[in-house]
Amino acid sequence: MYFYPAASTPGCTKEACDFRDNLAELNEAGLDVVGISPDKPEKLAKFRDKEGLTFPLLSDPDRSVLEAWGAYGEKTMYGKTVQGVIRSTFVVDEKGKIEVAQYNIRATGHVAKLRRDLSV
After folding, report:
1. Are 82 and 74 in contact (CB under 8 A)?
2. Which of 12, 44, 69, 98 is the most exposed place for a label (fewest CB within 10 A)?
């Protein structure tokens, strides 16, 4: 499961397309991918269709899920402290236990690093 700030922005598009391009290998390793952002479902549907994303994108407009997972809060952007989505990824096992929690990740190269970390 990964949390991202906004559909159709350059970094979020790169990250989503990296997950899409690596989805077969992740699935073969027993990993499903789900993306969550505060975007409305209509925006997520356009993003999914435009980028050919083949995994679920979930909408959390009130940010309750983001906050529960620690993926929304204070962060630094361009040298300023702001409130927003903290780009994060979690690997959750079949029993719901969090195996990996990564916060403040970079969109570019993140999926490759995740695959290395998980030996996928």
Report:
1. yes
2. 98
